Amino acid sequence: MAKESASANPFEVAKQQVDIVADILHLDGGLRQVLKSPKRELTVNFPVKMDDGSYHVYTGYRVQYSMARGPTKGGIRYHPQVSLDEVRALAAWMTWKCAVVNIPYGGAKGGIICDPKHMSHGELERLTRRFTSEILPIIGPEIDIPAPDVYTDSQTMAWIMDTYSMQRGFSVPGVVTGKPISLGGSEGRGEATGRGCAYTIREAGKELGLKIKGGTVAVQGFGNAGSVCANILHDEQGAKIIAVSDSRGGIINPDGLNPHAVEEYKKKSGSVVGFPGAKAISNEEILETKCDVLVPAALENQITGRNADKVQAKIVAEAANGPTLPEADTVMYQKGITVLPDILANAGGVTVSYFEWAQDLQGFFWTLDEVNQRLERVMVQSYADTRRIAQQHKIHNRSAAYVLAIQRVVDALKTRGFFP
Ligand code: NAD
User: Fold this and answer.
1) Ligand 1 atom showing the smallest separation from residue 97 Cα
2) Cβ(150) to ligand 1 under 6 A?
3) Residue 147 in contact with residue 139, Cβ under 8 Å?
4) Residue 129 CB: number of other CB atoms within 10 A?
5) Which residues pair with 49 in a beta bridge?
6) 46, 57 in Cβ contact below 8 A?
7) Rounded Cα gap, residues 158 and 182, in angstroms
8) pLDDT digit string, tens, across residues 264-320
9) Given the DSSP bridges, would you call strands 144-148 and 40-49 parallel, antiparallel or unpaired?
10) Alpha carbon nearest to ligand 1 atom 9, residue
11) Of 128, 129, 187, 371, which is least packed with CB atoms within 10 Å of its CB?
12) Is 109 assigned a catalytic role?
C-alpha cells in the first residue's frame, strides 16, 4: 500500500501519504493538488537583541495549510533543524489530525530556527515577542491559533498572548492554547497529548485482547507527551514501563521503572541517563526493544525501512509527529504490528486545545473531570471511526485515519463549493 519514500523530507512524506489516500478515494487531480498544497505560508527574518548586546537575525515560519473546516490550529517549534518543509508537513498533519478527531479546525504550524537550549530566558522572551509581532497579521482566535510544540511551553504561549493583546488593546486569551491556567488555559491541557495517547493504547489493547495491565512499554522521548503517556499507562492502566529515553540516550530495566521517579531524576540531572538501577540503552536500541507497546514520542523519521523489521512491539503508538516513514508502515503491517498513527494517537493535545479555545471564547471554564471525560469520549470515538474504515477498506490504521480525515476535508471543500 505505501510507496517507497524517495527521501526523508517530511513534506515529501506528507504528500505521499495524501497520494495513497487519494488513490483509495479515487480523488481527481485538482482535488489532489489542493490537498497537497499549503494555503498560506509566511517566512519572517527578524532581529533579536542577545544578552551580550549583539543582534542576531532569526528565521521563522507560519504555515496555514487548510481552512476548509475552520480556523487553523497548530504548534510553534523552536529547534535548530526547523525548515519550511518540516513546518509544511507538520501543518498538513495538523489538518488531518483535527479532521480525524472531528474538531472544527484546519491545520497550521510554525517554527523558528534557533537553539533554545543555548538561549537565556530573556533571549527566548524577546525572540517570542518579536516573532509574534511579525506573524500578528495572520493569527487570531478566528484565523489561526498557535500552541506549544517541541521546546516551547505555556510560558511561550503567555508571551504570545500578551504581545497579541498589547496590540489589540484588550486581553485575547483565545489567540493561543496551552496557556497557563491563570491566563485562560484549560485544566488537563498539559497532559492531554499523553493522556489521549494512553486512551488509544487502551482501546487497541481491548480490541487485540492484549492486556495493558502488566504489559511492557518502551517510550522514546521522555518529554511532555512521552512522560505523561508513561505515567498514565503506569498509574491508571497498570503497565510496566521498561525503557525510556531522551536526546542524550536511554535507560532500560526489565523489572520496570517508576516513571515518576525517572521524571524527578531528569528534572534534577537534565536527562534520564544515569537513572539508578537501570542499564544504558541507545535511542536506536529502544525502538528495537521487545515490549508490548512502543511509544515513539521524540522527533520524525525514527522508524524507517532500515529498522522497521527489528521493531518487536505489538502496538506502536505514535505520540510524536511523523516518527514512521511510509515504507516502514508496510513492513510493520505485514509483521502484524498495530500502529496507532500520529494523527490519531497524539490528537488528544489538539482536542483539549480546542476545549481551551471554546472555554476562552465563552469565558466559562470546565473542571478537570469534565475535560478528561470529554477527551476520553473523543479519543474512543476517533479510534472506533479509524478502525471501522481500516476494516471496511482492508487497510492499515494510518491509511484509515487519512481516509477518514481527508474524506472529511473533501466533504467540507465540496460543501463550500470549491469542487461542486
Ligand atoms: P518535549 O520537548 O517536551 O519532549 C521531547 C523529548 O524528546 C525530550 O525529552 C527530548 O530530550 C527528546 N528527544 C529529542 N531528540 C531526541 C532523539 N533524537 N531521540 C530521543 N529522544 C529525543 O516535546 P513534546 O511536546 O513532548 O513533543 C514530542 C513529540 O510529540 C513531537 O513530535 C511533537 O510534535 C509531538 N506532539 C506533542 C504535543 C504536545 O501537546 N506536547 C501534541 C502533539 C504532538
Assistant:
1) 43
2) yes
3) no
4) 17
5) 55
6) yes
7) 10
8) 999 999 999 999 999 999 999 999 999 999 999 998 889 999 999 999 999 999 999
9) unpaired
10) 223
11) 129
12) yes
